[in-house]
Each structure stands twice: as C-alpha cells, then as structure tokens.
Amino acid sequence: MKKTDEKRRSFLQYSVLATLGTLFGGLVKLNSSVYAADLPLLKESDPVAKSLGYFTNADQVDTKKWPKRSGPDAKQQRCSTCMFYTAIDPKHGKCQIFPNNTVEANAWCNTWSKKPA
Ligand code: SF4
Fold it and tell me: In this prediction, what percent of the chain has a pLDDT beyond 90?
C-alpha cells in the first residue's frame, strides 16, 4: 500500500471518529436537557429545601431567619445568579444542590453563591 493511501485512510478514520464524537456529544447534551426538564419542580415543603431556606420567590425570603438575603447584594441573590444553577429555560433550571429537581430562576436558598463572571 502506498504511503499516500495510508495517510488518506488515517484522515478518513479520524474524520469519521470526530464526526461521531460530535454527534454523540450533541445527543448526550440534548438528552440531558430533556431529562432535566422532566424533573419535578422543587417545592418549599421539601425537607431538604426547608432546611436550606428555599423560597420559590427570592423577594419573599424571611430575612430574619435567613439574614444572608438581607446583605448589600440581596437583590441580586436568586437562583439565576447562583454558581450552582444551570438554566433549562428562562424561568427554570437545574441546581447542583438539588439534583433530583428543577428550581425556579427567581428562587433562593441559603446555599446561594455568586456565579463567577
Ligand atoms: S443553591 Fe443556588 S441554584 Fe440551588 S436552590 Fe440555592 S440559590 Fe438556587
């Protein structure tokens, strides 16, 4: 076999692998976002949510009980600005702290940490 044939074969093999990798990666990403959207919305009554001061509306947080939400950056504190949040759509997202649920973009809990810029 000629050296150019070997190079051509290698190039084709790499191209096929790269294409399959791209397709597979896209399917995994698509599948995970569809899966995340199917998770139930976290409720304030959930025992773990309650213990972390989860409120579906960040503006209704009991700041006497959860003073972290009354600091100078309080108005910015909501799930959509939290480092643990990944948006699914404009109003909902996934939270790493509650992997079996989705959370509201406008919610808040005491684990809130500012998303890095
Ligand atoms: S950790 Fe962040 S994203 Fe998760 S519920 Fe609390 S504030 Fe929202």
Answer: 64
